[in-house]
Amino acid sequence: PQPWYEIALYYNGLKMTDLSLKAIQKAYALDRNNEWYILGLANLYISQNKTTEAIELYERLSKLKPDDENLLFQLSGLYVQDNNGKTALERLNHVERLIGKNQAVSFEKYKIYKQYGKDKKAIKEIEALVGEFPYDVDYVLLLGDAWMDLGYPEKAFPKYMDAMKMDPNNPSVPLSLADYYNNIGDSLSAKKQ
């Protein structure tokens, strides 16, 4: 299988996608558990907008490497591309169980909920992040920004003020406040930030 994989890389470098695909498919057919062959084939499928086929390969690899958070994160992104938010969220929840709550996972979950019109769940995701890390000014600002993003400036402003009290010297606070003022049409106050 290794020579087929090398040939696939060669053809891919020459932008000969069809020949590259045939070669990597042969390598994969000879060794269906090889991570490099699976990823190589999946990435070629992604480049050809064959998301369903790529998902099948990523799922196969996730069974071989069930604790690989990067793989699961990428898989969730493929599910989003495939308009399957429910499964994308399941994969992100698995990542969260593996590594704990963090900004990258919470923000991805926020975006998925927002994409599907579930604003309450979206904001709860960021609120949970702040609940987990209540003294992190950046997460408080993120919550304010999320409220602004969802169209609730009246709920964003108190979060910005909370962040200002927590760390008056944080350079991100005036930037968020300037965005807030611009969004509500108060350009004079925005310039003062």
Distance between the termini: 61 Å
The arrangement of helices and strands along the chain is HHHHHHHHHHHH
Helicity level: over 70%
Number of helices: 12
Mean pLDDT: 94
Task: Tell me the layout of helices and strands.
Layout: H1 2-13, H2 17-30, H3 35-47, H4 51-64, H5 69-81, H6 85-99, H7 103-115, H8 119-132, H9 137-149, H10 153-166, H11 172-183, H12 187-192
Helix pairs in contact: 1-2, 2-3, 3-4, 4-5, 5-6, 6-7, 7-8, 8-9, 9-10, 9-11, 10-11
Describe this structure as you would to a colleague.
With 193 residues, this protein is mainly α. Helix content is 79%, strand content 0%. It contains twelve helices and no strands.
Which key terms come to mind for this protein?
193 residues; mainly alpha; 12 helices
Structure in a nutshell:
By secondary structure, the chain is an all-alpha fold. The protein has 12 helices and no strands. The chain has helices at 2-13, 17-30, 35-47, 51-64, 69-81, 85-99, 103-115, 119-132, 137-149, 153-166, 172-183, 187-192.
